[in-house]
């Protein structure tokens, strides 16, 4: 009986996760944005990835609870302190099942 409740609890946790796709523009490359974003994601327990885009922007996929993601999106709007965030676009998507947060090159 206990295992039934344990499995159900895990299932509920999966349902509560969501994915935010975050696109950040401004002076966001060459200023430590990816490393700082990864550190913030690890601190918040978020999974996904961050990568530089050819147009000078940064793209992130972040997966976690809505509360975690809202806090992370707020951090992305401010940035790491160096550089300058001009615009941040956040869209919600179906979770991808990421197991860690990584920096893509």
Provide key terms for this protein:
105 residues, alpha+beta, Alpha-Beta Plaits, 5 strands, 38% helix, globular
Largest sheet: 5 strands, mixed
CATH architecture: 2-Layer Sandwich
Helices and strands, in N-to-C order? HEHEEHEE
Strand residues, percent: 35-45%
| Spatial separation of the terminal alpha carbons | 47 Å
Q: Mean of residue pLDDT? A: 89
Class inferred from helices and paired strands: alpha+beta
Please report the total strand number as a whole number.
Answer: 5
Computed CA radius of gyration, to the nearest angstrom: 15 Å
Low-confidence stretches: 1-14
- What's the tally of helices? 3
Please tell me the total number of domains. Answer: 1
**Widest β-sheet, arrangement of strands:** 4-1-3-2-5
Task: Explain the overall architecture.
This protein is an alpha+beta fold and 105 residues long. The protein has a single domain, classed as Alpha-Beta Plaits (2-Layer Sandwich). It is 38% helix and 35% strand. The protein has 3 helices and 5 strands. The chain has helices at residues 2-16, 33-44, 66-78, and strands at residues 18-27, 47-52, 58-64, 84-93, 101-104. Strands 4-1-3-2-5 form a 5-stranded mixed sheet, with helices on one face. A hairpin with a 5-residue loop joins β2 and β3. It is globular and about 35 Å long. The model is unreliable at 1-14 (pLDDT under 50).
Give a topology summary.
Elements: H1 2-16, E1 18-27, H2 33-44, E2 47-52, E3 58-64, H3 66-78, E4 84-93, E5 101-104
Parallel strand pairs: 2-5
Antiparallel strand pairs: 1-3, 1-4, 2-3
Helix pairs in contact: 2-3
């Amino acid at each position: 009986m206990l295992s039934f409740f344990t499995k159900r609890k895990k299932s509920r946790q999966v349902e509560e996760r969501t994915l935010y796709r975050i696109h950040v523009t401004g002076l966001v490359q060459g200023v430590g944005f990816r490393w700082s974003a990864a550190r913030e994601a690890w601190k918040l327990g978020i999974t996904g990835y961050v990568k530089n885009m050819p147009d000078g922007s940064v793209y992130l996929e972040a997966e976690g609870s809505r509360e975690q993601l809202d806090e992370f999106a707020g951090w992305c709007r401010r940035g790491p302190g160096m550089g300058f965030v001009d615009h941040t676009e956040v869209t919600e998507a179906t979770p991808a099942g990421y197991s860690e947060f990584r920096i893509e090159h």
